[in-house]
Amino acid sequence: QVQLVQSGVEVKKPGASVKVSCKTSGYTFVNYGVSWVRQAPGQGLEWMGWIRPSNGHANYRYKFEDRLTITVDTSTRTVYMELRSLRSDDTAVYYCARDLGLVSTVTLDSWGQGTLVTVSS
Amino acid sequence: DIQMTQSPSSLAASVGDRVTITCRAGLSIGSHLNWYQQKPGRAPQLLIYDASTLQSGVPSRFSGSGSGTDFTLTITSLQPEDFATYYCQQSHVTPPLTFGQGTRLEIK
């Protein structure tokens, strides 16, 4: 079955970076995109960015463009999300999700379990 | 970015009730509308895609309708496991993918 397994809880100081991994299994990796979505405490869902694993092409939400990088390692079927210059309002649960879109983000049909990132001095 | 607005923001209902949640897009999005269910402490799950197609494994008491700017998610005969937060999401113009603010369905 399709599985996306994310790395564990992170606690960071303001100004630091965090890199969250998302290891996939159970499907043909290069036939789907992967998106990242975050959810601040008690808040709704915010799409951050997407990557096409076949060639590493990514696109990002405008507000994150200068501090977000999504990368892929096809040999391990793992997608990474790195967010830099962390602020307290980056405290959130970060989700990866399999994306049916191969040209751009479309529909998220399987999700990782989420990774809590806390930014605090 | 296409703005998505859900109503109501919260809703109280009883087991066995029929409920409807509405989602309005800021401009016409055809049928490019998905619905997700999220339970506390869990990741969202895809319920319905392309406005009205049930995702595999989702019970038939869930249904979606609409096109253009106005969409509805209907749950007939609410079950205890249906109490959750529901989000709509447009895929007509991306990036970015945009979600509604969510509708919290609570037990009356």
In short:
The complex is a heterodimer of chains A (121) and B (108). Chain A is mainly β. Helices cover 0% and strands 51% of the residues of chain A.
Comma- or semicolon-separated keywords:
heterodimer, A: 121 residues, mainly beta, seven-stranded mixed β-sheet, four-stranded antiparallel β-sheet, B: 108 residues
Helix/strand layout:
The complex is a heterodimer of chains A (121) and B (108).
Chain A: E1 3-6, E2 10-12, E3 18-25, E4 33-39, E5 46-52, E6 57-60, E7 68-73, E8 78-83, E9 92-99, E10 108-111, E11 115-119
Parallel strand pairs in A: 2-11
Antiparallel strand pairs in A: 1-3, 3-8, 4-5, 4-9, 5-6, 7-8, 9-10, 9-11
Chain B: E1 4-7, E2 10-13, E3 19-25, E4 33-38, E5 45-49, E6 53-54, E7 62-67, E8 70-75, E9 85-90, E10 98-99, E11 103-107
Parallel strand pairs in B: 2-11
Antiparallel strand pairs in B: 1-3, 3-8, 4-5, 4-9, 5-6, 7-8, 9-10, 9-11
Describe this structure in words.
The complex is a heterodimer of chains A (121) and B (108). Chain A contains no helices and eleven strands. Chain A is mainly β and 121 residues long. In chain A, strands 2, 4, 5, 6, 9, 10 and 11 form a seven-stranded mixed sheet that branches. In chain A, a hairpin with a 4-residue loop joins strand 7 (68-73) and strand 8 (78-83). The relative contact order of chain A is 0.32. The model of chain A has no long low-confidence stretch (mean pLDDT 97). In chain B, strands 2, 4, 5, 6, 9, 10 and 11 form a seven-stranded mixed sheet that branches. In chain B, strands 1-3-8-7 form a four-stranded antiparallel sheet, with no helix packed on it. Chain B contains no helices and eleven strands. With 108 residues, chain B is mostly beta strands. Helices cover 0% and strands 49% of the residues of chain B. The chains are: A mainly beta (121), B mainly beta (108). The A-B interface holds A 35, 37, 44-47, 49-50, 59-62, 95, 97, 101, 104-114 and B 34, 36, 38, 43-46, 49, 55, 87, 89, 91, 94-102.
